Hints:
The structure is a homodimer of 332-residue chains.
Chain A: H1 14-28, E1 40-43, E2 47-55, E3 61-62, E4 65-66, H2 67-81, E5 84-96, H3 101-118, E6 121-130, E7 138-148, E8 164-167, H4 173-183, H5 198-205, E9 211-215, H6 221-230, E10 236-240, H7 248-257, E11 271-274, H8 276-288, E12 295-301, E13 308-311, E14 317-320
Parallel strand pairs in A: 5-6, 10-13
Antiparallel strand pairs in A: 2-7, 3-4, 5-7, 8-11, 8-12, 9-11, 10-12, 13-14
Helix pairs in contact in A: 1-3, 2-3
Amino acid sequence: MENVISMSYGNGGKKTSMIIEEMIIPALGNDKLNLLGDGALLRTSGEIAFSSDSFVIYPYFFPGGDIGKLSVCGTVNDLLMCGSIPKYLSLSFILEEGFKIEDLKKIISSIKNTAEEAGIQIVTGDTKVVDRGHGHGIYINTAGIGEKVKGINLGKKRIKIKDKVILTGSIGNHGISILCARENLLESKIKSDCAPLNKIAYTIFKYGEEVKILRDPTRGGAATTLKEFVEGENFSIEIEEEKIPVDREVIGACELLGLDPLYIANEGKIIAIVSPEVSDDIIKDLRNIGCNEASIIGEVVDYTSSKVLLKTLFGGRRILDKITYDLLPRIC
Amino acid sequence: MENVISMSYGNGGKKTSMIIEEMIIPALGNDKLNLLGDGALLRTSGEIAFSSDSFVIYPYFFPGGDIGKLSVCGTVNDLLMCGSIPKYLSLSFILEEGFKIEDLKKIISSIKNTAEEAGIQIVTGDTKVVDRGHGHGIYINTAGIGEKVKGINLGKKRIKIKDKVILTGSIGNHGISILCARENLLESKIKSDCAPLNKIAYTIFKYGEEVKILRDPTRGGAATTLKEFVEGENFSIEIEEEKIPVDREVIGACELLGLDPLYIANEGKIIAIVSPEVSDDIIKDLRNIGCNEASIIGEVVDYTSSKVLLKTLFGGRRILDKITYDLLPRIC
């Protein structure tokens, strides 16, 4: 095998087969993927969740992960946020001519490990190659299928006044780690929080109908996610700055760079809205599985203009909107 | 709205919402997509097919179609080739900074028309933006879910000696049309055959267990598809050059450019292997629905070395391998 990807690795012929047979099947193979048909035949419970994301992150290796790990986590977590158990994943590469085969191997190995951790099988895929100058090493798309959990019914329409807003851990780590890695900024110890959220989500799933909505605050950060919850609805959400966990290093980096942690992407956290009756129990359970910073950060309030309000450390109130200008492009 | 895509269209915030709410939902919206969750909840029959492809074709507008039409057809056709009825599609864009919003609108409109023709609903999606010089206008990934047709069981293991090889129409049109459009070669009338294959596949599905395997010969062309059928199996396939339908213009272009139509990509044809008992009836049915060039091009032969043999016009025999060097990169 050569050292770098050339155009003929994308022609569907011998070299495409080499990637599949020498790199993908040995690492990711299973009875469904190994059939190498135009798609995979799967048996499911019937009620399924379906989600897809493309990943264009740069650099594709970063502290705490790489584009392979991220592309599995991203779709796995979206399936969990739909109230489903992740089962099957598709994996599509867009490789740029000149991309190192060595790097592709590392990324595939990381995909293998993350898929195992998340309990998801890669069952179908695709590889395309674009000419130099029309990519950035590697882009990945994953699509996933999950089986819906009975008794979990999530949606904005189920949110009620006085429901509590839970955040499962500190925010901002993913975005800041990428920014530091990309720009060689700061001697940073900040790692991405990129992780499959199965364990955390299953802990919350146990509360059934008391769970109203789940979302992992990736692009746009926690503020954008909360704003999406209130949009078009007859309630607002008020959160308290002092309750929001942010690592000291992230606060430092944000202050230095003029960024707001509420708008920085996360890849391993959940925002959940739940009934007030179960919120303390959920926090207790989350801490028991190691989410030491899980907190109730606010609640749904009877203020009909669909706002997200931040009660600041100084006692004032600030209205949070969705992200507009983005100081951190391509963080997922 | 501005005239071109800027980085902030990919940040998951206000501008990403503009693409979704002003362009995608009005064209493609339905009760599932409009919920705009992290994924879609779907009810299926349980036994499903799952397939995904990325599309990096250039130019993204070409005679007979565009990247939008192709990205729907590609996955719809893969689902059909698995013996399933296409139901649900995900749609993920990777846009390059500077891409014309006008072109994105045209592509979305084409996606709408093709999805309607194929009877598939777009239920979830994603939009990413990469900086100038790291894309080529637009790349699209689609993933699809189909419901398996009862009584259809496809696979190489079901192929038997004397089974017939059916080709549903002329080959080479897609690849040659793209090459001519890209290089401004020839004053060509050749159009891509890009089309959803539902009607043709359903006609073949009627023959149930008599249908052994289906494949649409895209990248690598008909020769590569046939070689994939025999690989690792105890039979060979012999096809006859004179039975293979190729349009006159495609033959002309291939001769001029030194290309072999058997290795040129198609996006609207099926190669089927079927029992000899039903092969003539299938051809009759296919001609009845307008596949005037549908032909039996060869058969499975008792020659155990997994070869594809071409009986040439001059009576010789040539061994066909998979595509190796590709004179036509990025044709899908």
